[in-house]
Fold this sequence. Notes:
Strand order of the largest sheet of chain B: 6-2-1-7-8-10-9
Largest sheet of chain A: 7 strands, parallel
CATH class of chain A: Alpha Beta
Largest interface: A-B, 24 and 29 residues
CATH superfamily of chain A: Methylesterase CheB, C-terminal domain
Strand content of chain A: 15-25%
Number of domains of chain A: 1
Number of helices of chain A: 6
CATH architecture of chain A: 3-Layer(aba) Sandwich
Helix content of chain B: 40-55%
Structural class of chain A: alpha/beta
Number of domains of chain B: 2
Order of helices and strands of chain A: EHEHEEEEHEHEHEH
Oligomer: heterodimer
Radius of gyration of chain A: 15 Å
Distance between the termini of chain B: 51 Å
Structural class of chain B: alpha/beta
Shape of chain B: globular
Number of strands of chain A: 9
Helix content of chain A: 25-40%
CATH architecture of the largest domain in chain B: 3-Layer(aba) Sandwich
CATH topology of chain A: Rossmann fold
Shape of chain A: globular
Strand order of the largest sheet of chain A: 3-4-2-1-7-8-9
Distance between the termini of chain A: 21 Å
Radius of gyration of chain B: 19 Å
Strand content of chain B: 15-25%
Order of helices and strands of chain B: HHHHHEHEHEHEEEEHEEE
Amino acid sequence: MKKINLTNSYKAVVIGGSAGSFQGVVKILSQLPKGFPLPIIMALHRLKHVRNGFVEALSIKSVVQVTEPNDKETIKKGSVYLAPANYHMSVELGNNFALSTEEMVNNSRPAIDITLSTCAFLYKEKLLGILLSGANKDGALGMKHIHERGGTTIVQEPTECMIDTMPKAALAITKIDHVMKIDEIVEVLKELDKQYR
Amino acid sequence: MLDIDIADLKRISELIFQKYNYDFRNYAMSSFKRRVLRIMELKKLNVDALLKKLTENPQFINEFLDELTVNVTEMFRDPSFWRIMREEVIPAIMLNHKQFKIWHAGCSSGEEVLSMAIMLKEMGIHHDVTVIATDLDVNILDKAKSCSYPIKNMELNEKNYIRFQGTRSFKDYYREENGQAIFDKELLSNVSFRRHDLVTGDIFNKFDLVLCRNVMIYFNQALQNEVLKKFHESLFKYGYLAIGSKESLIWCDYANRFIVVNNEEKIYKKIKD
């Protein structure tokens, strides 16, 4: 495994993904250590008008039940959250989610940039940001914000991605700390978990 | 890249409150920040220039509000919600009153109002219903009254209508003119549009059904709590309140004066005064 310095000071993990990311997300969630100590906040592109089914599909193999938060719901450690269909999902200073129906960003609602950027603002250097396979540039700006606020950035190895536009867009506009395959990302999360034991 | 800190956002909301009596001080910070940044970008203003313009140019406030408030919506948003309205909520109201009143609170450009009108027409009860639609943004109310929308929005609206299982062809409801879909104004003959601010405004009427979907998500919890009290007071006993599908009332003081009628669609019923 590539060397990555981890401490127990992280407060959250945020994951963005689009086309071709589903398998990767399922793999990550299915191998998550039991009692993982941080919230995992996910913004994944999805059909705008299909409210049901996605969270259930992700939950089948996940160690932790995935939930779509309600507006203003408190962010809890060890929970896995998914941005609901047709809403942008932000995190707020009171440690809660805030949903919105604003204009689409990068043709997307939920937009990965919004979730990543608000996480960067809230968690600063205590954030691990992961961007997976996808077919547009959504998420790149969010990764830039995570980097600028001192967080750690990881993108999925472009050769492993079904569609590599998204990780490549992030690599093009900001410093990415680690380029990794899904298996390596899983190892990072296991290693991170050990820091809190 | 433009950025703005919380202290400056607070200066802006404080100024708008003191000078114009619009109260954004309890808006959810993440979206308020995005909206203000968006205005700064659109109008090419930095924070100081924006504050100066708000101070010195009272006409600017309407333009500012128009951009600040979120006016993105669609007709028959959440078709399953509209099916429940047609099949359960409206029939339940009609068991008690043949004629009744609906309030669309925060109606924006009027897509929801028009959807309701179409539904009531198809149910054959349009003339029995009095509708009041309010928003704090006067420009957007004009848009709502015009009954005319970009034709490019119709594809999505039509898809929603089909999922709602309306009784006609969606295209029957509008004609196309210069890239606009123009709906028959008769659909809104029972609607009165009014400027009203949920935050600073008073209770003005009593209703059998209040719709306020995806409006309170822009408020913080303290403000959601206050606004729910106003809705409670604006509803007849056993009246219905509909909020957005991912909103929740459970942390509000008045939550226990309502029961859940449909949890998936977030429809509540007032059971206690």
